[in-house]
Automatic annotation (TrEMBL), chain A:
Annotated Gene Ontology cellular component terms: cytosolic large ribosomal subunit
Any GO MF annotation of the entry: mRNA binding
Originating species: Rhynchospora pubera
CDD domains membership: Ribosomal_L13 (cd00392)
Protein name stated in the entry: Large ribosomal subunit protein uL13c
Family: Belongs to the universal ribosomal protein uL13 family.
From TrEMBL, chain B:
Protein name: 50S ribosomal protein L20
Record GO biological process: translation
Keywords: Ribonucleoprotein, Ribosomal protein, RNA-binding, rRNA-binding
Family: Belongs to the bacterial ribosomal protein bL20 family.
One GO cellular component term noted in the UniProt record for this chain: ribonucleoprotein complex
Coiled coil (residue ranges): none
The organism of origin for this protein: Rhynchospora pubera
Keyword Ribosomal protein recorded: yes
InterPro entries xrefs: Ribosomal_bL20 (IPR005813), Ribosomal_protein_bL20_C (IPR035566)
GO molecular function: rRNA binding; structural constituent of ribosome
PANTHER family, A to Z: 39S RIBOSOMAL PROTEIN L20
Matches recorded under Pfam families: Ribosomal_L20
Length: 241, 122
């Protein structure tokens, strides 16, 4: 079958400074394997017009010095050609997860099913929606939840779901139902749900601090310009029967 | 192994495990066992990391990992998961082209909407 690969596919736009110049050639190879297999014809023609002419020493803003051939043996391969992005799995540097440059999302919790909303929130906080996901590094975004007291649960959970905590002393277990806790501290319901879905450990605890839950519809983070959280779950809206 | 070799391998260990031979010997033996096991585990962990990254990358384009790989296998595209994950991170347009190739081959199991009543017969 003839699949038309859009020409924009040949433009390798490195959106990270560490992309080496070898990316241009690899794009071509990847496209060759895709196109030749789908067309059933091996294209052995060179297509120089599509190869990007990149001035190597000026890639990345002249970060790579030109080393003459006689001195190549003195340097490591990564110093001559730049980092090898195709054989070493990428690991984020400190500049790739600066907290001040992370996205902020906002969710309105009114009439949303608690667990389904918490699951999407936890995914975004952990960074699992990004192709640059790394489990050991905090690559996720910040999430603001407003109208936390209006969060919905299905079935009889409103009166039957129990929230337990223990003070540590014998006989010190305290039990509350969903609606009692919602009257007392509504933010804690959403926090409890999301915390259970984040990893437990040092990293999980810092991820949890990226969740901001508020009772009303006001939040103090206007300066971060939060964008609405894209929710793909179709059953998240609570339908009153 | 003699003591010097043990202490050399015990650098950075916690507490007495780096200083006292009896404890250091145990911890070093364990550390060597872990490193043997983890040289094999690292290959598994890396592959699962690539798969997670590819999954995230394809879901940005509305396709999940399983359907994406199925489409690639049908098209006989032999790119491995390491390269696919690097493409997803560094070459977004090329990756989008791959996702489109996979989607044309295998559109995925779209749930057939149930038609009610008369329209189910028509």
């Amino acid at each position: 079958m003839a699949t038309t690969i859009p020409t924009s596919a040949f433009i390798a736009t490195p959106h990270r400074c560490s992309t080496g110049r070898s990316s241009a050639i690899w794009v071509q190879k990847a496209q060759f394997s895709a196109s030749s297999s789908s067309l059933g014809v091996s294209l052995s023609l060179k297509r120089p017009s599509l190869r990007l002419v990149s001035v190597r020493c000026e890639a990345n803003g002249a970060g790579m010095p030109v080393i003459p051939a006689e001195e190549r043996w003195m340097y490591e391969e990564s110093e001559i050609n730049g980092p090898d992005i195709w054989n070493k799995t990428w690991y984020p540097k400190a500049a790739d997860h600066v907290n001040t440059e992370k996205t902020w999302y906002i969710v309105d919790a009114s009439d949303k099913i608690l667990g389904r909303m918490a699951s999407t929130i936890a995914n975004y906080i952990r960074g699992k929606n990004l192709a640059t996901y790394t489990p050991s590094v905090d690559m996720g975004a910040y999430v603001i939840v407003i109208n936390a007291e209006k969060v919905a649960v299905s079935g009889q959970k409103r009166s039957q779901k129990l929230y337990r905590r223990h003070s540590g002393r014998p006989g010190g277990m305290k039990i509350e139902t969903f609606d009692q806790l919602q009257k007392r501290i509504p933010e804690r319901i959403v926090e409890h749900a999301v915390r259970g879905m984040l990893p437990k450990g040092r990293l999980g605890r810092t991820l949890f601090t990226h969740l901001k839950v508020y009772k009303g519809s006001e939040h103090p983070h206007q300066a971060q310009k939060p964008i609405p959280l894209p929710i793909r779950d179709k059953r998240i809206q609570f339908v009153k029967k | 192994m003699n003591k010097d070799k043990i202490f050399k391998l015990a650098k950075g260990f916690r507490g007495r495990a780096k200083n006292c031979i009896r404890i250091a010997r145990e911890r070093v033996e364990k550390a060597l066992q872990y490193s043997y096991r983890d040289r094999r585990n690292k290959k598994r962990d890396m592959r699962s990391l690539w798969i997670e990254r590819i999954n995230a990358g394809t879901r940005l384009h509305g396709v999940n990992y399983g359907n994406f790989m199925h489409g690639l296998m049908k098209e006989n595209i032999q790119l491995n998961r390491k390269v696919l994950s690097e493409l997803a991170m560094h070459e977004p347009y090329s990756f989008k082209a791959l996702v489109n190739v996979s989607r044309t081959t295998f559109p995925g199991n779209k749930a057939v909407p149930k038609k009610e009543g008369l329209s189910s017969i028509l």
